[in-house]
Write a structure and sequence with these properties.
Length: 161
């Protein structure tokens, strides 16, 4: 019993030491600007939507063309993998700088757009000839879910792709 109490006391002590202390007179404001939920990002969001719209359309067309080659594992689809991978690599090189140069965008928009880019890149770099594996299917589905964020933001602003 004494060992158990000593262990609990040690854990409580470590937690207490690691917690920041605040006093009533301590200034907790930060000199670093933060983005609050009330910050209007509409103009920046619209600018990013307009910049990415043709690239999102291009990516959708590239994906459709690849899928239309036939089911995974067929000779035509397997033969199309290198071209699909090259297209995605080129697309990432063009869309990523646009995202990186858009710092005042709604954080949800940025996160989901980046997730879409990353998932697309991961899918393209990992697919191999032969039947689709679970990881490939998951990456493809993840990218479809991720584009929902940019779709929601951009379509509310009247930017279609």
């Amino acid at each position: 019993m004494a060992i158990l109490l000593a262990t609990v006391a040690l854990v409580v002590g470590i937690i207490a030491i690691s917690r920041p202390t605040t006093s009533p007179n301590r200034d907790t404001s930060s000199s670093t600007p933060t983005t609050s939920a009330s910050t209007d990002t509409t103009a920046a969001d619209r600018k990013l939507c307009e910049a990415i719209a043709p690239l999102i359309r291009e990516n959708a067309d590239t994906g459709k063309n690849f899928v239309n080659l036939g089911p995974s594992g067929t000779p035509a689809r397997d033969a199309g993998i290198p071209d699909y991978q090259a297209s995605v690599s080129d697309w990432v090189k063009r869309i990523q700088p646009i995202v990186d140069q858009s710092p005042y965008v709604d954080p949800f928009f940025t996160r989901t757009l980046q997730r879409f880019i990353d998932d697309t890149r991961i899918y393209a770099s990992s697919i191999r000839p032969g039947p689709e594996n679970d990881a490939d299917a998951a990456a493809w589905n993840d990218k479809l879910v991720a584009i929902g964020g940019p779709f929601d933001v951009c379509h509310k602003l009247g930017v279609q792709w």
